[in-house]
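Hey all, sorry for the wall of text incoming. These are the two entities for the joint prediction.
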Amino acid sequence: MSREKIFFTPGPSELYPKFEEFLKDFVDNQFGSISHRSAAFKKICQHTDEQLRELLAIPAENAVMFTGSASEIWERILMNCTELETFHLVNGSFSKKFYSYAQSIGRHAHKFEKPMGEGFSYSEIKVPEYAELISTTQNETSTGVQMPEADIHKLKKNNPKKIVSVDMVSSAPIPDIDLSLVDTAYFSIQKSFGLPAGLGVWIANEYCLERAEAINKKGSIGSHHTLPELWAQSRAFQTPSTPNVMAIYLLGRVAEDMNRRGRATLQKEVDQKAKKLYSYFEKKDGFSLGVAKPEHRSRTVAVINTERASSEVIAALKEKNLIIGAGYGPNKESQIRIANFIANTPEQIDTLLNAFEELF
Amino acid sequence: MSREKIFFTPGPSELYPKFEEFLKDFVDNQFGSISHRSAAFKKICQHTDEQLRELLAIPAENAVMFTGSASEIWERILMNCTELETFHLVNGSFSKKFYSYAQSIGRHAHKFEKPMGEGFSYSEIKVPEYAELISTTQNETSTGVQMPEADIHKLKKNNPKKIVSVDMVSSAPIPDIDLSLVDTAYFSIQKSFGLPAGLGVWIANEYCLERAEAINKKGSIGSHHTLPELWAQSRAFQTPSTPNVMAIYLLGRVAEDMNRRGRATLQKEVDQKAKKLYSYFEKKDGFSLGVAKPEHRSRTVAVINTERASSEVIAALKEKNLIIGAGYGPNKESQIRIANFIANTPEQIDTLLNAFEELF
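and here's what came out:
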């Protein structure tokens, strides 16, 4: 059936155009009933693994693992890859939450914090000597600030013994993060992959595994979804506990379709839409861009300041079945957030901007 | 479309008869795109909460919380409700895994272990003095052994200061566990609720919350899905991180349908089917019951010894599109497991037994 509303919310968001086709295949094949220890499940898991490796250029050495959410992965990274000290680049609500997770489980957590809407200049970053982890957020969903890929790569190059983690929750598979350089990265499927929520994807290299094994000898790395167990199971296209089979299946189908279209094509389309969005709001009366520096503006989540209360803007667009997001946290009323995910077609972006032109 | 295969696997298993109808409603309403902070999501979450409270007679005092899986709940109970010592009634692979989780996170874990296929006599259970948690498994999915509800209630009555947890993963909503007596219980949705996997449901009382808050003052209760945070969010029909919205929605619809049919009716139907299954295999040449004592035989997962290799039995039935489970772990080849969930209609059980009669 045709979808009545168009979602530009920063996730959950508009579903991938072929979502219903893939879902129908899942149902028709009765995959909701198969054992997660069956050959049929392993085949599904292997397909998703292979398609993600192709799409994101994941090295053969790395493991691709599934969890309940990206937030769960924060805790797993902390428990499996750190013992004492962590360092967090904080410039929004999600990078801050990872930092607070580190404090909650008793790590001595350092942060370098920027006001919301600002990104990091590489030269300003001073990594604490004893930090075992450098947490970077490639795309801050709350503020629409991105960190250039080259800066993330440089951080690892200049801190080879520290684990560099990359939050790609709302940007994967768009950014060109070199997964053979960084140690671990993670994302959710309800953002740029255009799927219903309920799965986190965790990519990690052998250095992360070594750390987990070393820490495990001295203390505890937890009991559920430990890295060594997730890793070993993933090598057999299995999971330690019963996973969200439907999400793993759908993700494989979406990734396959993205590979067919070609990642470069997807990136180009996203960038063209982003350019159109930012150019429009730069000039539009009553609105301005939430992120001043062009190189820090997210390609996938546009954050826009609004002089009218965001609730008013959102309500007017909702009348036209166009659903956008409010600002996050303290910026709830002063900002709007517009997802520019792969599932949002260029025509949808035009429809949205035409509505802005008509309404405001 | 009509389903080709009938699943009697002990979960994931046969889907609830109305699964496709409920899924269509989810898709048609575009619930896969809604924000988990929206009023629409809260309404879904509230509906599921209310239907589960009615179905399972959950006291108003208790919280109903959602996680990625039941295994995740094991770790959350250990981290939030225990500090030093735990006690586990172990009589199969899943109760043993909970015990090993406790060891992995550094608890002094005690166990009282029975051979696979045997249950516990209440009088034999000696609870260690300093154990903070008594872990019971109402239904051991690996062995088909159940623990009578009255024994679980008695354990709490005689150990009022200890947290009594009940694994109902593959039996809820069938057993009459009094949730105003025990402290915490949990289940998965891919068993008796007949849904695709990817959601754990955690029920806990205020005593669990008090323990978590007390432990949190002295040490760490973890960072992700802590009980106080899950609890607070659940009171507002919210979740700390983006949940499996589809599963929460489908669970609410299934629970509502179960309430319409009436839990007593469902219990009666399950018991009649169980009686038929056990009577058949008790007399059938080449097969015998995996659980000797009638009071310990699971109502929802029948475990049957087989003289032929289970792989041979499973393959022959598969030819007829009837899918049953192998024995678990060491009993893989010597046992078969047959789910007797709510989604398995009396007609399906007849079809299965007729096939046994024809084939063996």
